[in-house]
Design a protein that fits this description.
The protein is mainly beta and about 120 residues long. Helix content is about 0%, strand content about 50%.
């Protein structure tokens, strides 16, 4: 299985079956994380975490607080594609594979300041 990343003419492929996507909330500066798994032609979210709470980022009903981190499973159906905005005004996304964590932009050399990134199975 592979994960394809694309933003306009810039593209990359990673030979992985699962990944964690993380980012910092632009106002509260609190880390969010989502664990995803490739299942056929879709992406399935398996868990999400919020490392705190604040404006617009309350944990959902049923979330469990463990060691200061809210854990939950979003009620989100399998997704064919994830679309993320890359912006110079906020901290970028981080993509963790089972072996390494890197800024998502590092996988897409030449990524513009205002880019729409698509993540999908390939």
């Amino acid at each position: 299985m592979s994960l394809c990343l694309a933003a306009g003419a810039v593209a990359a492929s990673l030979a992985i079956e699962s990944f964690t996507l993380s980012w910092m909330h632009s106002i509260e500066k609190i880390r969010w994380e989502e664990d995803w798994r490739i299942e056929g032609s879709t992406l399935v979210i398996t868990e999400a975490r919020i490392r705190g709470s604040g404006a617009g980022m309350e944990p959902p009903a049923g979330a469990l607080l463990r060691n200061g981190i809210w854990h939950y499973r979003p009620a989100l159906p399998p997704q064919a594609v994830l679309r993320l905005t890359h912006s110079p005004y906020t901290a970028g996304y981080t993509l963790c594979t089972p072996t390494v964590c890197r800024p998502l932009a590092d996988h897409l050399p030449g990524l513009g300041d205002h880019a729409l990134i698509e993540i999908r199975p390939c």
